[in-house]
Each structure stands twice: as structure tokens, then as C-alpha cells.
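Why does residue order matter? Because the sequence determines the fold. Keep that principle in mind as you read this record.
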Amino acid sequence: MSPSFRALREVLKEADTSAADALPTVVHNALSRVGVKGVGIYLLDYGRTHLQPVPGCIPPVGAYEPHPVEDSQVGRVYLERRPIESSEGGTFRLRVPISERSECLGVLELEVGELDDEVRQLSEDVGVLLGHLLVSAHRYTDVYDLLRRRQTLNLAAEMHWEIQPAMSYVGPSISIAGDIEPAYEIGGDAFDYSINEGVLDFAILDAMGHGLEAALLSTQAVEAYRYGRRRGQSLLEMIDTLEDAFIEQFGGSRFITGLLCRLDCGTGEFRWVNAAHLPPLLLRGGRVTEELATAPRCPLGLGIPDFAEEHAITLEPGDGVVLYSDGVVEARSDNGENFELDRLRSFIERELAAEQQVDSAVSDVLDAVRDHSAGPLRDDATLVILSFTERRD
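Structure:
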């Protein structure tokens, strides 16, 4: 058994028996056998501006401190999603992404006396293992979640982050990424997705109002959506499930808008139902070629008799679909100019042309929306991009 294999095995074994918030010590103890002298673990904050050090990091010199995503070596590893190494005074510093599937959660920093290909490969493997361990640790400790906060989440945002899926996923035939601003004060926007036996279900939902009331509505909407999806309902049946859940709870006084979508990864057939939401955008050849506009339908929850219609097109490999909320195009500058659809199209096309990762493109577009706005965003801004890369057998 090679030293690297033993070290990986030791990380996994010790993480399963040690305190849930002791991952830096676990990694250090396991990797010290292969010459690692120091371990730093940095987690991305909710606002995506800094990488925060986890308590218990073991530095041989100085102390670990927060690093900005922009203009720092640690931030560069996160942005470029690749290892970066340096040396100083006979000590090598190796930084690698901490990832869970395609989602980059932070950066692992190792200080070693000697650096070779085996140590490089081991560090990348530990970065992936740490990503999965951090996700599972959320069930047992608040330490890592609290580290991601550079300011206090309001109650609505606290509720929101508990129902959100992973912000990105990359699989054999699809990639999907989404995000919402403002990170610390989210109210009524939400998105969700699930991949089941070659079929991707995904949705964007926007509850009426703002703040805590909107968060309560969006939480109920997401859970009702999951309830229908997990029972194998069609898109039209899920629309009825959402409608009935809101009518039963609120008697027609509260509503949501939404897009419920389904992609067959084998055939490329994309189906959607629009409930008074902004239409999805079709990406083809790296450009937003059209809005998938349909006849309007009433929002869900008002109890108004209306006809829901399911629509379908066939996606070709390389195509994509964009979902967004009104908070994106209605973000207003200090001179009263909205962000608007044309600007959104331009930013999406530019970012997808420049970025290899869809999640980075989503983040950059939402950063542009935030920068365009005069002061805090007046409404949640949500963006989800699906890329259909190849047909799945």
C-alpha cells in the first residue's frame, strides 16, 4: 500500500470518528506522514468575495487569515479551479481546490518540505475528499456554515439557504449552475433541480412580496415541487400540486410565479410549463437566439381557473437554457436605467465565451447586475443556466 493511499485512507477513517469540526487536524495528522508540515482550509463566503480560514488550521509560520477572491493566490486557485504552487525559504506551498463534484467550496493549502508528483496528486485527491466531507459535516455542526458568513444572514436568507440544492452540477451529458443575489438578504426567489435516471427536472420559483413572508412562501413552493417530483408527477400535475398547496394554505391570497422544466438527457427533448414567469432563453451556438415565449398563465395560488400548457423543443448537444427572475432585468442604476434583457443577453454570451465553468459565468453575470444597481438590490436576482453537452445513452 503506497504512502498516499494510506494517507487518504487515514483522512477518511479519522474524519468518520473525530469531532465533526476537526477537519484541519484530521488532514494534518494523516498527511504529516508524507511530509506535510502545515494545513490550511479556506471556505468561500456566501457573498463570494472572500475565502475564510477554518479554525484549527496548523501553520508553521504566522497565522491563517481571510483572503479576497480577487487579487490573492488563494482566490486565484478558486477562480481558476486549478492547483497553484509556490516556494519560499525552502518550504513549498501547494494550494488546490476543495470541490464536491463540480462545485468549488474553497481551497486547501498545504506546506511541505519536498514537492513531487505524488504529493501533488495526493493534495488534489484530498481536496475532492474534503469537499464531500464538508457537505456531510453540515448535518452535524454549524462551524463550517458560520464561517461562510461575513455578515449576518437575515431569517429569510437563513431559510433560503437551507432549501437550496448545490449551486452547480456537472454530469456526463449536462451541467447546471445557478445563484441568487443578495446572498445575505434573499427573500422569495428559489430554484431547484434533480437528476433521476437520465431525466433532469429543474425549476425557478418567485414568491410574491419580500422578506420573511416571501421566504415562507418560496419554502413551501420548493417543498411542494419536490413532493410532486418525487412522486413521478408530470409537469402539469406538479403545477396542480403547487396550486392546491397554496390554495389549501392561503385560500387564494398568496401566489408564486414559476417555470417547471424537464430535460430528457437521452433525446434532448426539453419540456416546460410557464406559470406567469419570464420565459426561458434558448442558447444555441454560444448565443441567446430566442425567448421561449408562450401564452400567459395566471400565477399559482390564486385559485383562478386557467389552462396550463406544456411546451416542448429538442435541444442539440451544445445548446442551453437560461432561467432568470425579474430582479435581474429590473435592477436599476442610479440614473434609473434597468439592467434589461438585451444587457443580460450580452453578458451571458460574453461570459460563456470566456469561462470554462458555467458556475463562474453565472456568478460574473450576477456581479454585473449587482454593480449596475444603485445601492442594494430592490428584489432578488436569480440566474440559472443549463448546458446540454451530449446525449446520454
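The mean pLDDT is 90.
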